[in-house]
Every structure is written in structure tokens, then in C-alpha cells.
Amino acid sequence: MGDRLWRSLAAWGIGFAAATAGCLAPVATMAETLSGALVRAYNNNPDINQQRAAVRAADEEVPKASAGFRPRIGAEVDTQLAQFRKTTSRFIGPPTDVDDYPLGFSKPTGFDVAARQYLWDGDHTLNLVREAQSRDMAAREQLRNTEQNVLLEGVVVYMNVMRDVAILDLQRAHVRLLEEQFDDANERHRLGDVTQTDVAEVAADLAAAQAASYSAESTLIASIADYRRTIGVEPKALAPAEALDEPLPKSLDRAVAISQVEHPAIVGALYGVDAAALDVNVIESRLYPTVEAKARVDRRYDAATAAIPTVPFIASLTTKAIVPIYDGGLTFASTRQAKETLDQRGFQADQQRDRVRAGVVSVWGRNQSAANIVAATRELIAAAATVLEDIRYQHKLGQRTILDVLVAQENLLRARIQLVTAQRDEVVSSYDLLSRVGRLSLGGLRLAASQYDPKVHFDQVKDKWFGLRTPDGR
Length: 474
Fold this sequence. Notes:
Layout: H1 2-21, H2 34-44, H3 46-59, H4 61-66, E1 72-79, E2 84-87, E3 96-99, E4 109-120, H5 124-191, H6 196-231, H7 252-262, H8 264-284, E5 290-300, E6 313-322, H9 330-396, H10 402-436, H11 442-445, H12 454-461
Antiparallel strand pairs: 1-4, 2-3, 4-5, 5-6
């Protein structure tokens, strides 16, 4: 019985090594790669899709603002169906209803068409268009930031599933080992080789291992759910993944410098500053005079009378200048408010720069230490495995207790789980660093997929004068 136990212990050690070596590759045949998963997320993730719709909606602000450059045309048709007048006689008798047109005029009917065009509006429309363009560019940067966040989340959920699969395999292998040890301890207790306390110690470790296995299974289920939410499909077989190296900056100073120029959160904040500055100009333009031209055609179809022998037709072209004098202080207060908002946007941009820089420094440290942690954990595993082997041998000679063996097994298990976690962290931290500098994208990762170009929709709608349908036909 003792020989069978030691053979099972040896097999358990081999199983642990295989599980750890394959923790980044649960199944290799017809596997889903990390690149493939990220392409799925890029094409199907609802967070990205809703932000793309938000950018398309922001695109429409430009033709809305451009409407101030274009004429406004309206038509009006009127016809009076009936009108009655009630008069009261001075003499005794009932009141009399009298037609409102006692002199023979017909009920009035006619139409007019008027067109109005601003010749100059104090550059109100020009600044409004520029502000809309800045806000649209800020929305594009928000889209780019959302894409980065989703791609990083895709890496996290991918590696979480791989980590949790490996940990569950390790926990289940540990349970199987303890079940064999428990059976062997019961048999040896029956033969009088060990005490009831030894059997109870193995039973306690077995119960703890079973609880840990159930917990690992629950964690894996949650990770699978997160994978489905982010990637859009259930994880089937995930291929090995490696940490990034080539796309990453080679020094911390370089990483910080790139982030301050390219990170979409910073670029978007700067576009917000531009929009706020233009908003000041938009409000100030209310203080400037405006000049407009108006063309009008008016045709009446009332019946001619002796006083008006022909049907009236009037056409006119007029210009008008409007000079604002005082609006109760509304424009002055609004301008001051807009200037304070401009200062606020500037402070927010500075704050965003500091946040991005702090994030780069933090993740740089984690990424630099990730490989060292993996290497150190491998050494820890080798040492723990050696200790376990020695304690097993000493226990076989009667120099160690079963408790010593159980403790050594638990130490090796924790070390192998630590390695699985460290390998996961090494991959995630490398992608996280690329995200912090603002380069986590299809191009930055060289993924084989068609990249969404927000400029296509913008070019389709920026000069549209008519049409209710969106460019995609809705």
C-alpha cells in the first residue's frame, strides 16, 4: 500500500508540472487565439458600438451649425373659411347675425413665400461650426479611448479564463491526491501503522481542498461570463498568449513622453479646451450687429372691387441690420460664465495629463517586475518540489509525520498557483502599458481586421442640405 501511495505522489508531481507548463494553453487544437478574441471584441462589443453611434451623432452637429450659412425658406397659405359678426339692434327685437362682409368683399385667400439669408452674423455661425468640429473630434478620441479599454478588457478576461482553468485543474489534481492519501491512511490505520489523528489530518486537508476546488470552479464560471460579455462568444479552447515586447517603449521617459502626446484621454481633453474657447466667441458674437437679406413674394386672391380693381401681387427684396444694445446683461453674464468654463476645461486637461502620467509610471513598474516575479516563482516551485520529495522520503523512513507531507504539498500547490497568476499578470501588464501610452489599437497590435474609420460618416453628412435617412439607410 505504501508503494502505491508514493507512485501516486510521483504522478501528482508530474501532473502539477504539466498543468503549470500548460496554464497558458488549456487546449491547443483549433484554439481561439488572443488576437482573434480581440478582433471579435473590436467588431462586436456593445461598448464600442454605442460609442461609434455617439460619434455619428456628434458628426451631425456640424451640418446643424452650418445651417446658419444657408438660406431659410418658408411658405404660408391662408384662407378664411367663414366669419360671422353678431350685432344687436337698437330697436326691440331679437339680435341679428350679419355676414362680416356686407360690402361685397370675398373671404381673404392668399399665399406668400419668404427667404432669409444672413449676410453677416458677427461670425456666430463660423465659430459655432468650429466648436461643433472640435466637439466631434473630442468624441472620436472618446471612441479611441473606449476601443483601448475594451481591447484591454478583452486581454484581461482572456487571461482570467486561462488562469482560472489552470488553477481549477491544479485544485482538482490536489483533491484526487488527497483522496488517495485518505484511502491509504484508512488502510494503514486498519493495519495499525498510523493513528486516528493521522487519518483526521488527511481528512481535514481533503475537505479544505474540496472547498478550494469548488471556489475555483465558481471563479472560473464568473470569468467565463465576463469573457462572453466582452468578447461576444463562449470561450472554447484558448491558445497560449505571450507578453508584448516590441510595441512597448524602451524607457520610462519615452513611455511618459508618448502618453502625453498620443493618449486619447489627453487629446480629447485638449479638443474640449478648444471647444470651450470657441464657445466664448459664439456667445460674444451676440453683441455684434447682424445683417440679413430677405426676399418675399405675396399673392392675394381676394375678389376685386371698385377700390381694388386687380388681384394684388407683391415681390420685395430687403436688407436689414440689427444692432443689439442691451439685453439686461444676459450676454455679458453668459460670456463670463463661458470663460470660467474654459478655465475649468484647461484644469481638467492638466488633471488628465497627471492621471495618465501616474498610470504609465505605475504600470511600467509592474511590467518591469512581472518577468522577475515569474522567474522567482519558478525557483520557488523548484525548491518546494525538492522539499516535498525529501519529506516524502523521510516520511517513508518514519522520520516525518503525515502532517509534514501535507504541509509540503500545500506549499507546492500555493507556489504553482502563484506561478499561474504571475504568468497571467505578466501578459496583462504588457498590454496595460501599451494602453497607458495610448497605442493599444488594431494598428498597434497589428491585428488582421478592418479598422472603423469615423471620418467616413463625417464626410458623408458634413455638407448635407437635405435628407432624413442616415448614410446607412435608416
